[in-house]
Amino acid sequence: MPKSLRDLTGDLVGNRALVRVDYNVPISSGRVADTMRIDASLPTLQWLLDRGCRPVLLSHLGRPGGVPNPALSLKPVANALADKIGAEVRFVGTCDSPEAVSASREIQDGGILLLENTRFLPGEMNNDPTLAERLGMLGDFFVNDAFGTMHRAHASTAGVAQVLSPAVLGLLVERELKALRVLKDPPRPFVVAFGGAKISDKIDLLNALLSRADRILVGGAMANTFLRAQGYYMGGSLVEDDAVDLAADLLRQAGERIQLPMDVIVTSSIKDPIAMVREVAVDQIPEGFAAVDIGPVTRKRYQKDLKQCSSFFWNGPMGLFEDPRFTEGTFSLARTAAEITNCGALTVVGGGDSAAAVRLAGLAEGISHVSTGGGAALEYVSTGGLPGLTALSSYSA
């Protein structure tokens, strides 16, 4: 396990802390539409400011493909961060130039420097060592507090950790790893819920949890593929045809530990807001109708399983929760997760759409841990490691 900020010793006053944050936030009309990821970074930034450090922040936003794109500039984030932390935040529209290095040396006491989108640079995503060297000139030590990017070996995550020493975990990443490590040997009974679209995207995680979980509750389009593997007619439902055999194999391995929907909500058209919507058993899906949520019988059964567990891990919504007509399956799971948390169960939501759903339901505060990194959380639970974490392990002081 690499060192964290708490392990730093000595006088840090005046030191430039190069901090990789995850400010990949939605921007609407030039303003940050959701500050959750900014909020998550505040404890680390305040820790540094309280000790007289001068934070220099790196982040990506979107997928600009290694070329500047004004629509993906981090400039709006500077204002949002300043409002949140109550400090001056200077923005500089580059991150690998002499201007950026000079700005890092001119930070005033109590101030923060936010640099431009790292993915505007062609060497960022292939971890170019020359770029990592240039980024290393921006700080006196490195802090990786961007958990959502730690499954990527990029120049601003893994590369710079090889240039600057010490290279340590931020408080957000430390908190994420502490919560997710518990899932290696969770309190039992241990229930897992999977949703979302594709089995193939989560096969490593499914295999990793197959031997640990007492129950695996399946929803979303992923359930459609499992149901097809059992021989059910799925109408116009989204099915991952290439993964039907894989689903059948998982069912053979897990037996009754994998629970599939008994009934579903179906619609004649996902795009038409006044299209016909029905509750049907899984063996009665009409031709042309698509399953878009778990039904009320399934919800009750899944709730019963959850209320008997001591730990719960959830990744992926139970249906198309983005559409108000099809939120109930996902929201019912979120409500039950909050209830069992209040009764002492450990509950972890593995980022991505399931985390967004929990926030939309207004229940994020009622969950033990809501991860800020979907892909990173899944990879860490699956393998126990991350490229960004390995870099820190290798090069921490």
Secondary structure topology:
Layout: E1 16-20, E2 27-28, E3 31-32, H1 36-50, E4 54-58, H2 75-85, E5 89-92, H3 98-105, E6 112-115, H4 129-136, E7 141-144, H5 155-161, E8 167-169, H6 171-181, E9 190-194, H7 203-210, E10 215-218, H8 220-229, H9 244-254, E11 258-259, E12 263-267, E13 277-281, E14 290-294, H10 296-307, E15 311-315, H11 328-342, E16 346-349, H12 352-360, E17 369-370, H13 374-383, H14 387-395
Parallel strand pairs: 1-4, 1-7, 4-6, 5-6, 7-8, 9-10, 9-15, 10-11, 15-16, 16-17
Antiparallel strand pairs: 2-3, 12-13, 12-14
Helix pairs in contact: 1-2, 4-5, 5-14, 7-13, 8-9, 10-11
Can you walk me through this structure?
This protein is of the alpha/beta class and 397 residues long. Helices cover 36% and strands 17% of the residues. It is built from 14 helices and 17 strands. It has helices spanning 36-50, 75-85, 98-105, 129-136, 155-161, 171-181, 203-210, 220-229, 244-254, 296-307, 328-342, 352-360, 374-383, 387-395, and strands spanning 16-20, 27-28, 31-32, 54-58, 89-92, 112-115, 141-144, 167-169, 190-194, 215-218, 258-259, 263-267, 277-281, 290-294, 311-315, 346-349, 369-370. The strands form four sheets. A six-stranded parallel beta sheet has the order 5-6-4-1-7-8, with helices on both faces. The model has no long low-confidence stretch (mean pLDDT 94).
